[in-house]
Amino acid sequence: MKRQIKRISAAASLLALLTAAFVAGCSGLKSYQNTPDNNLRVRTAADSGSWFSTVRTAVDIHGVTVDCQTEYEGTVQLNRPTIDVGIPPNRWSRLVFVFASSSFLANRSGSITYETLLKPRSGYQYEAKVTYKDDMYNVAVHETHPSSSVSRELAHQDLRACHPNQ
Amino acid sequence: MNRFHRSATILCVLWFSGCISHPQTPEEFRKAVPAAFSAKVETFEVDRPFGQVANTFQKMGPNCLSKTVKTTSQTRTSYQVIVTTYKPTVLVTPKKAELHVQFHHDQGVIGVGKEPEGGYYLLVADASPVSQTKTRIDLYRPSMGHGVLIQAVRNWATGENVGCPDLTK
Description:
The structure holds two protein chains of two kinds.
Chain A: H1 2-27, E1 40-46, E2 53-64, E3 70-77, E4 82-85, E5 93-103, E6 108-118, E7 125-133, E8 136-144, E9 151-153
Parallel strand pairs in A: 1-7
Antiparallel strand pairs in A: 1-4, 2-3, 2-5, 5-6, 7-8, 8-9
Chain B: H1 3-16, H2 26-32, E1 39-46, H3 50-65, E2 68-74, E3 79-93, E4 96-107, E5 120-129, E6 135-142, H4 147-158, E7 164-165
Helix pairs in contact in B: 3-4
């Protein structure tokens, strides 16, 4: 009996994995290839507030060219409380935080995004605090100087702040 | 169908029957709200200087509300996709800070009536100084649905639990 349950469980896991891979492939999402810097620590706390709904968080990372065009580089699923990500330093990147919620009872789903630009400085560490609670979300990015523990919150900037060749 | 879509449908039906016309400016919206059955005026004071409230409106309004959101809902017999674009406007003078929120359906809902530029008015929040430490808020807002948006604007005024509303809710 136990063996049978284990088999069913393994088959279900495999099916879930294949489905996730299929969905990811079809949706055009790809995993982000970290740079070695690991200069951005993302701390996530997301709670849908209900047994009958879920909220999934992720961050899409886009490179920003000198003429302010964006190029999708990949997605990091924020499925752990802390995840380290490497963002290329001395270059603008566009971080798009995605909050995707779904309600089982209402058969309803939706997603909302929060985007900000980040140009990491070499040697500096960055921390993004991503929260979702009571249907409210927040993203705050802090920068810490390499030789001190003092950090400052970075102002939100979207693509409108990008000026070609700057 | 959630509360927002129900109220949107009711509004559309009423408009068809000639009961209402859509306000075209924030001032028209303020005047229309007290007499509207699906909207109300909420007035309260917060223990926060006017300048701080205005700053929060300026920071959070564009960051949180310049959004296009997509929701899908499904039943056994229907599948509905609604795409909505929200447009915030913040105007600040030494004596008043105004937050206007408009919305426009890009997909999934048929627009009826003359839509103002930027979309139908959904909410207007006026902040004005009462004293050096207190600010009065007049919130012209829907009485059905949009609870998350309304709570977010209240929080921006009080400065407590400041965050962005999930506009898909």
